[in-house]
Amino acid sequence: MENFKKDNIQYIKGVGPKKANLLTKLGIFTIGDLLEHYPRRYEDRSQLKMINNLTDGQVENFKARMMNCAESKPRRGLQITKITVGDSTGTVQLVWFNQPHRKKIYGLGAEVLVTGKVKKIYQVEIQNPEIEMITDMDTLEAGYITPIYAANESITQRFLRNLIRQILTEYNATAEILPPIIIKQFSLLDRKTAFENIHFPLNMDVLKQARRRLVFEELYLLQCGLLYIKKQNRSNTIGIKHGPDGCLVKKVSEQLPFSLTEDQQKVLLEIALDMEDTKPMQRLLQGDVGSGKTVIAALALAKTVENGYQGAMMVPTEILAEQHYSTLSNLFLPLGIRVKILTGKLPKRTHEQVVADIKSGLVDVVIGTHALIQESVEFQYLGLVITDEQHRFGVRQRAKLQEKGNMPDVLVMTATPIPRTMALTVYGDLDVSTIKQLPPGRKIIKTYVRGSDRRQLVYDFIEKEVNSGRQAYVVCPLVEESEKVNALSAVELYDELLKTELVNISCGLVHGRMKSVEKDLVMDRFYRGEIKVLVATTVIEVGVNVPNATVMIIENAERFGLAQLHQLRGRIGRGDHQSYCILLSDNKKPETQERLSIMAKTNDGFALAEEDLKIRGPGQFFGIRQHGLPDLKIADIINDIDVFLEARQAAEKTVARPESFDMLRPALQVRFGKEFSMIFSS
Ligand SMILES: Nc1ncnc2c1ncn2[C@@H]1O[C@H](COP(=O)(O)OP(=O)(O)OP(=O)(O)O)[C@@H](O)[C@H]1O
């Protein structure tokens, strides 16, 4: 078992370097990958039809014998191969285009199983059918449910099927890895039977059991890994024991122009208790957009400073670093807390000075981007690390910042509410605090979906709001993942608006390709209210806080996912005034309309996150890979919730017993690969 992942596919009988290379295109490098190349679907071929009963337009399965073959070249570049097959009730023409090798594969007289869409013209015909020699499958003929894999032209279904069958029979790659007690407790199939039946199910019932077993295994191993990290971080590790809140924290609280909501008080208490414990804090703070997480971060930072430590806060964008720096400076500087900012864009001299000051302890709190995890950055006595990550940092990056201190407390903040299962999967190594309540006085953001025929009216509305003293965002269409292309489209939109709809209004433009100084200048003017309408790409998605902004127009809204739309919308509705979000879209596809109308219906980030997860699936909701966690090969985080909860329960028991966990280590190494195992190999 330990080695099966390492077993290169190339050394399997019948593969060789050429085929191995083709298999890698399907993501298959090892025997283990091949076993986990799970069928995408199955076809029940146990119900075979006779040829005279085939229905026009249906995908049908039938058994027949190869009768004759004809080839023609009606024009240059087109070669048609036709093979006639038949049974006792009739014949069918099988047709392939430009695949002359077909003739050679199936010798005349051979008995085959044919699957394909029937077309009845003058005669019965099937184009590009799937063919299988009966001899390949005679052992499985009774009740044959055929697996259909992700395949391509060079690696056919048949080749994959044969290869997997060979692995299952000739290689010892399916040895049991789950503890017997767990198999018994959760009535799981043994591993060998599970693999055999996920690929070549005897019947639908055993297929279900096979899938359940493999889903369980996948989630169980993942949870064991995460819970182990969590345990390691807590047991044996002596972290920093902060004292109870003193007068500095009190002074910061007193400076706030509002009192904390109940939820804010609750999470603050959870954080304070963690910080006052000798075990290092490992906590996720999740709260909907605008729920007031920054102030929690500020109070936690003040607590660490009060105890004689330094605090660091890592954020994903420069705009956000600037904004937090400005908020925290306002709060901290009057109290003598020394705050600095560290981003990649600081002039070299200033950068060096800040790095030197952090090292010598002349900085109490530093806010920064990825620049904070560079090697040159050393702290004198780091007590608290906060990452405001919005799914942009990975487990590894988080760990890197943490390593800059001697077991500092760690607080991870996120504004994308994560459904419970997802939180346990991605942040299974953390304790979770949640702010559900929004600060008092917030009004629901009124959200509308409009076609571009109403564009003029929409922009007239912006003008009206601006005239009554408010500000607005226009978010330009997301064209693709590249900020370069998005920047271009923002520039175009900005130029057009200046000439047309927004001709009389003071406007600004920000996008990710601008120089930081320019960007800062524009943001600063927007913060100060000199710029009334900000045209922007999604650089403003995260954290930007201008409470006077009450309108947001999102152009080509259909191009954004729900979670992202919610994040964007979260830039408005942050003050006392009624706010409005208008999603412009001409896309009439029912699924798009449905997605956008969900936005119009609810302001609740948790409800939206659930919907988004359902619509887009966990992979895209946010790439699990970004978190340094492996992809899930078989489990489906939404639909496998029951198995997930069982697996989590089992993992908790295993991790609690070192001897059980030790037995799992080899399996975990295989499952998590190098990156992840680095974290929990110690
Ligand atoms: N208890 C409160 N009462 C009134 N206003 C508050 C309260 N807490 C925070 N605010 C204000 O609400 C606004 C949003 O707070 P903050 O920026 O901390 O939210 P956030 O959770 O970080 O949002 P995002 O995730 O969108 O960045 C700020 O203007 C902040 O001053």
Automatic annotation (TrEMBL):
Has keyword Oxidoreductase? no
Instruction: List the CDD domains hit by this protein, alphabetically.
Output: DEXHc_RecG, RecG_wedge_OBF
Listed A to Z, the keywords are: ATP-binding, DNA damage, DNA recombination, DNA repair, DNA-binding, Helicase, Hydrolase, Isomerase, Nucleotide-binding
Domain Helicase ATP-binding, chain residue ranges per copy: 274-435
Report the EC code(s) recorded for this entry.
Answer: 5.6.2.4
Biological processes annotated in GO: DNA recombination; DNA repair
The record's annotation in InterPro entries points to: ATP-dep_DNA_helicase_RecG, DEAD/DEAH_box_helicase_dom, Helicase_ATP-bd, Helicase_C-like, NA-bd_OB-fold, P-loop_NTPase, RecG/Mfd, RecG_dom3_C
Spell out the family assignment given in the record's similarity comment.
Answer: Belongs to the helicase family. RecG subfamily.
Q: Which NCBIfam families match?
A: PRK10917.1-3 (NF008165), PRK10917.2-2 (NF008168), recG (TIGR00643)
Q: What is this protein called in UniProt?
A: ATP-dependent DNA helicase RecG
